[in-house]
Amino acid sequence: MKNELIFGNEPYLLHAYRAEAVKGIVMPEFNLMETEQFTQAERDFAKQMPFMGNRRVLIVSMEKLAANEFLEKYLKEPAPKTDIYIFAGEIDKRLSLYKKFPKESVKQLDKDMGMLQKWILGYIKRQNCKITKGAYEEFLMRINYEMEDVNLYHVKSALNRLCTTQDEITTELVQRLVQVNEREDVFKLICLIDKGRTTDLFHQADLIIQNGGQNVIGTLSLLLRSYRILYKVNVCGCSLQEVGVHQRTYIPKMTLDQADEGIDIIQKAVNGIKSGRYAQDFAFRLCLSQLCQLKKQ
């Protein structure tokens, strides 16, 4: 018997979890029910014994987890031979219903860079392929998994093209077959500065400039925040979590002195644009160029 609540922002993982949940059901026409609500009808289905099998499965797909008297009552006395999977698009952890699910029965399937690395390498291995370090880094840059509308379906499609072309994935192959998912991205700017990839860095700058002055100011402000977090972490010698920042926040890899100088560089660019002293495109490119030079010191 399973009573699970599943949610997250990675559709590929959610679909795979659902497929695993219904695998091996005997007589699914009698023992499987898929619905978008939990009412008396769904509770009655769950309470019945399986027909010529050892379990029944109820899949409930909700846009949002909301208070539900039928479901709350059912969870107090669940049927021993029925598995229930609640897939919810939105979750409010303050709900009484949410708290009815034990911690081990709540599955959050989100996009995650650590998971992505394992998934990519596992997929390549299953396809009997290999990938060079340079090709892997190029692939991550081009696929841009951090983008909201990019998920593992896009990653799988791109890897499939690579693996069906040749057994060893090289940087040149990735550049030829994988389209760049482009977006003005502060995370990517910091990564490119850290790696000294100036060509890609200024391509990202062009994307940001094309979206207007307010976008340039906004990007510089976010960069400034990252350098200030880095400075604060270096001064106090503490973790991101200890300074009140999410532990997955990406900050530049620099020394305390470099962080301090970086803050001055970015602040001067912002002030120059706001005062009209510098054109936004000139100030932005100059700022990025100076940050790259600072990284080399």
Provide structural commentary:
The chain has 14 helices and 7 strands. With 297 residues, the protein is of the alpha/beta class. The strands form 2 sheets. It has a 5-stranded parallel beta sheet with strand order 2-3-4-1-5, sandwiched between helices. A two-stranded parallel ribbon has the order 6-7. Helix 6 (113-126) packs parallel to helix 8 (152-163), helix 10 (186-195) runs antiparallel to helix 11 (198-210) and helix 12 packs antiparallel against helix 13 (256-275).
N-to-C SSE series?
A: EHHEHEHEHEHEHHEHHHHHH
Distance between the termini: 60 Å
Basic shape: elongated
Rg on CA atoms, Å: 25 Å
Strand order of the largest sheet: 2-3-4-1-5
Topology, number of strands = 7
State the helical fraction.
Answer: 40-55%
Q: Give the biggest beta sheet.
A: 5 strands, parallel
Low-confidence stretches: none
List the SSEs and their pairings.
Layout: E1 3-7, H1 11-21, H2 28-31, E2 32-35, H3 40-47, E3 56-64, H4 69-76, E4 82-90, H5 96-99, E5 106-108, H6 113-126, E6 130-131, H7 133-143, H8 152-163, E7 168-169, H9 171-177, H10 186-195, H11 198-210, H12 213-236, H13 256-275, H14 280-296
Parallel strand pairs: 1-4, 1-5, 2-3, 3-4, 6-7
Helix pairs in contact: 6-8, 7-9, 10-11, 11-14, 12-13, 13-14
Question: Could you give a short description of this structure?
Answer:
The protein has 297 residues and is of the alpha/beta class. The chain has helices at 11-21, 28-31, 40-47, 69-76, 96-99, 113-126, 133-143, 152-163, 171-177, 186-195, 198-210, 213-236, 256-275, 280-296, and strands at 3-7, 32-35, 56-64, 82-90, 106-108, 130-131, 168-169.
